[in-house]
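Usage

Read records sequentially. Each one opens with the input sequence:
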Amino acid sequence: MKRRSVIPVMALITAAILLFFFLNILLGSVSIPARSVLNIMLGTGNEDIIWQNIIFKSRIPQALTAIVAGAGLSVSGLIMQTVFRNPLAGPSVLGICSGASLGVAFVVLLSGSIGGMALSRMGMAGELAMTIGAVAGALAVMALIVYVSQRVKGNVTLLIIGVMIGYIANAIIGVLKFFSVEEDIRAFVVWGLGSFARVSGDQMVLFVCTMAVILPFSALLAKTLNLMLLGDAYSRNLGLDIKRARLFTISYSGILIAIVTAYCGPISFLGLAVPHLCRSLFRTNDHRILTPACILVGALFALTCNLIARMPGFEGALPVNSITALVGAPIVISVLFRKRQNDTSE
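and closes with the structure output:
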């Protein structure tokens, strides 16, 4: 796609984000008239206090969480696919999501067995403990990956080690489940389904502000990622320190994954699907275009999945992971088929 054609497409995607943001606030299991939603958001009129609580304490936090989580996972997936030059790489490829799950497993599954009280009964204190456990587990695995990356030269070897770390974490989680009480296992399974509704109040403000500070730094990696696409030998000849670049890009991606997983749970498929969709949409591998594109498309994708999960007629919400897979898998398949047809015609 020509550079002059990029801006109109970006503007169109931004407009779609605003539209779906409003739809996320308007639609849900509780029907609220559009005029009342506008009055509540603008602070005019005298609307039902229950509707105001639904808008400000549930729907707006969910929509904002979906935007920043979708953007963060999409950028992380783009970085992973570029660093490992593997189209199937994604946010979970290095075991960081598994590390977050292991941290939550230690907090949740051991609380009933050792403390005698299920964490799911502790309310906000339990949610905070799960978030802290997820951050600690994700950062611990990320630190291990960074340590290994300094001693392993090949990306494939590092990729395999990351996958093995994920298997080890899942094995430990299985052992913890075996010795845990049923209520704690259920709480852990629900967390593993992923949700944008878990973040609210001060947690939502901290999450959104943290991601708003971290995400813009992805623009600084565009040149490095473009060089890494050329291969190690060629990029080294152009002056790129491969070891340092890999350390920085993996660390940055790992931080994004750790934060999103800690607050929203392991959201699958989003980080894998969006980079493919952006490459197909903009027809480029230039990360100066792909990085902001992934931020916008990832936010739109997450808003769409969150809206489907909370469609009118459902009580509560469907698991976000189920929606991301159902929506994302056909997109990736169609993109790959279209690419295959284009390669064949050429």
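Summary fields computed downstream for this record:
- Residues 49-83 form the longest helix (35 residues).
- The chain has a mean pLDDT of 81.
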